[in-house]
Amino acid sequence: MTVERLFATLIYSRRVAGAGRLGPPLLRECRQLRLDDAAGRRWSAKSYPGGYTSYGSVCRMHRLSPTFAALERAIDPHVVAFARALELDLTGRALAMTDCWVNIMPRGTAHGLHLHPLATISGTFYLKTPRGCAALKLEDPRLERMMAAPPRRPGASRANRPWVQIAAAAGSVVLFESWLRHEVPANPAGERISISFNYGWF
């Protein structure tokens, strides 16, 4: 008998070259943006309780800040490598960053289950990740169709679990296809700061 592994969900995670140099100025700009972005703070009070995100106000930071544009250039090769692993046919155009925003999660802040519509590849670059801070939690995309499935064994491999968590590590980027639902559970540690983004092809 042959057992094949089909319809894989690939996740890319790697440290970004130059992260040590990029980190401090990015961290300063993220904190300054929180102070300056009154519209973002109002949006966050309703949609991101306890934390701050510029998603609803300033979501194209790579076009506004040279520091964020430098981050875009540092992330681009990782997106190319991930697209190659996915065997995407990008004939005729390249993937390009379309959105880029800041997330600041104090203790107790959570980011509910969601996906990124109208994007191709999404991801997060981690700037500040205190010990024990919340991980990125990914959902098996088939989960809603498993009406009669028994639970998985406690020692099931990561490939067979309904949920998998990817630890947040400062200086690293995590990439996934934008249709994959994900969340960040309530942060049990100190302030967690990240920059999220989308790449589009259409």
Structure write-up:
With 202 residues, the chain is α+β, with helices and mostly antiparallel strands. The chain has one domain: Jelly Rolls (Sandwich). Helix content is 26%, strand content 27%. The chain contains 4 helices and 10 strands. A 6-stranded antiparallel β-sheet has the order 1-8-5-10-3-2. Strands 4-9-6-7 form a 4-stranded antiparallel β-sheet, with no helix packed on it. The chain is globular and about 60 Å long. The termini are far apart. The model has no long low-confidence stretch (mean pLDDT 96).
Side by side, the strands of the main sheet go 1-8-5-10-3-2
Radius of gyration: 17 Å
CATH fold topology: Jelly Rolls
Strand content: 25-35%
Question: How do the helices and strands follow one another from N- to C-terminus?
Answer: EHHEHHEEEEEEEE
Coarse morphology = globular
The number of distinct structural domains comes to 1
Distance between the termini: 42 Å
Which consecutive residue ranges, at least 5 long each, have pLDDT under 50?
Answer: none
| Biggest β-sheet description | 6 strands, antiparallel
The average pLDDT is 96
Number of helices: 4
CATH superfamily, by name, is q2cbj1_9rhob like domain
Please write the CATH class name: Mainly Beta
Helix content: 25-40%
CATH architecture: Sandwich
In short:
The protein is 26% helix and 27% strand.
Defining traits:
202 residues; alpha+beta; Jelly Rolls; 6-stranded antiparallel beta sheet; 4-stranded antiparallel beta sheet; 4 helices; 10 strands; 26% helix
